[in-house]
Amino acid sequence: MRFVVVTGMSGGGKSIALKLLEDIGFYCVDNLPVPLIDKFFELTAMPGNEITKVALGLDVRADQSFAGVEKVLDRLKLNGYSYELLFMDAGDNVLLKRYKESRRMHPLSPNGQIEEGIRREREILKNVKKKADYVIDTSRLLTRELKEELDRIFIRNEEYNSLMITVMSFGFKHGIPVDADLVFDVRFLPNPFYIDDLKHLTGNDAPVQEYVMGFEESGVFLDKLTDMIEFLILNYIKEGKYQLVIAIGCTGGKHRSVTLANGLYKRLQNQGNYGLTIRHRDVKQGI
Predict the structure, then answer these.
(1) How is domain 2-154 classified at the CATH fold level?
(2) 102 pLDDT band (50/70/90 cuts)?
(3) Which of 28, 63, 158, 176 lies at a 20 to 30 A Cα distance from 246?
């Protein structure tokens, strides 16, 4: 029996995660009353049960203090029940935006102060997050990317570290990404913008890639950048970091930065047990 407890911040993607787990064969139950959790574990773990994979969703709605949930989960461990804890999270600004867009009331903000509800919930869940086997930050994840992360964990059973890396290209003239952890400037490279045949293409197009990477310094930069990022990733994982945004910028965010971001993304693919996505923030901006 594989038992997964799915919890996390309200608006962090728990419901979507449960739906995706159901799609891959899990029997899913959401917000079971706290007094029934023990019995639910007991029944599903009985010999001869045809159900082999179970996911149980729990959040502050089931127990506003969550203390009761924590006690039950600790007791289950003591009684020999094995489960994996998946914590769904997102940045506070992302959670706030999602609540405003959905016009839902936060379960811990009955007076409508969403920011206060998010703050209270994060404080309540901080110990559970520390105990989680997997933490998935959905701030920048598309549904298909979340599915890929869940497949890695629960289908392919790959070793997993809860670090989600985003490689992002951007244009300095549109502003540095406010959520970037590391920012690199590739404006020292020759600019394809000034070549008529390349001006209206982007770093996603082969002619621009061939032009940009045709300069020796482009390859040297990518080699040195990859080496440093791989070193940092190992240490970020040790430190328990959950999210890393690597931003690579050029003037407009269409040619050089896109090319180098794609290059770094390809080098980091399949190199470690972390999540990896790529974003081209300004590639569709007008010239």
Answers:
(1) Rossmann fold (3.40.50)
(2) confident
(3) 158
